[in-house]
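ingest -> validate -> predict -> emit
validate: passed (alphabet ok, no gaps, 338 aa)
predict: started
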Amino acid sequence: MIRRQPKLAVLGAGSWGTAVAAILARSAPTTLWARSPEIAFEVNEQHGNSRYIGDVRLPRKLTATTSLEEAVSEADALVIGVPSHGFRAVLTDAAPYIRPWVPIVSLVKGLEQGTDQRMTEIIGEVLPGHPAGVLAGPNIAHEVLDGYAAAATLAMSDRSLAAQLAELFHTPRFRIYSTTDVVGVEICGPLKNVFAIAAGMGDGAGAGHNTKAMVITRALREMARLGEAIGGEPVTFSGLAGTGDLVVTCVSPLSRNRRVGEAIGRGLTVAEALAGMNQVAEGVKAASVVMELARRAGVEMPIAREVDAVINHGASASEAYRGLLRTVPGHEVHGTSW
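emit:
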C-alpha cells in the first residue's frame, strides 16, 4: 500500500516562516501564504524572498499564495509563523478552510497582549480539537537557509504525532528533537526575547563580556522559575528551546531583539530603535505580558522587570542595569533574587 505524500502549508512569509517552508518543501508539497502579492510572486517566479532572506534561493517546489483558502484547504499539517499580534486574526480567517483534526504547529516566540496567552492556547480557542504544538530552538533563519548545522525541538502533547511531524522538518543539517512539554518549550520563546533585549542593552552601553555572561546566566534562572511555575518541565529550560535559544538570541548580531536592546543601550529611544526594522522584535511586545504572568505566578523576575521598565515606562538602559545591581544576591540556585 502506497501512502499519500502529505500536503503542508506555512502561514507567514517572514524570514523564519520562509526558512521553514523551504525545509518542508524538501519533504512534501508545501504552500507558503504571504500577505504581500509581491512576495508571493517572487517566491513563485524567482524562487526568492529578497525582502526577508536576501539573495538566498528557495526550492523550486515551494509555491506561494496570498489566498488563505488556497494555502490551507488541502493541507494535512499547518505551520504558523505570523507575529503574535496577528496570530489570532490570521488563524480565525483561515479556520473555515482548515480540514478537521489537522495538526497545527506554531513558530511564534511571543505572547498575545491583552489575553497573555501562548499561541497554542489561541489555537485551542479558535480551532478546538486540533492537535497544537510549537517548534523552537536556537535557529537564526539565515544560517539555517545557508546550510549551517542547527537543531530545534518540536513539542506536542501527543508523542507519536510529534515524532511523525518531526520527520517532515528534519534534514541532514537541521536536527529535530521532540518533547511533550508544550508549555515549557513555548514559554521559552518570549522570555528569551525579553532577555536578549537586556543583553543587547549591555552591549550598546559597553558593559563587557563578564556582565553579559552574568545576565545570560541569571536570565536562564528567571526563565526556569517562571516556566516551572506555569507548568513547564525543569529539563526543558536547559535544552534547545531554553539555554540554546537564549544564548544565540543574546549573542548573535542577527538577533532582532538583541539589536533593539543594543540601540537602546547606545541612547536611542524604543521608537528610534524599532524604526526601519522590517520584522517584529517580539520581546518588545512580550515584556509587559511576561511581567503580568510573573505577577500572577508570584515569581520575581528582576531582569524582565528592568526590561519592561525601559520598554514601557521610560527608564534608560543605564537605570535598568543600576537597578539590577542594587538587587541583593541570594543563593545562586534556590534564591529568588537576581
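Residues 151 and 207 are 30 Å apart (CA to CA).
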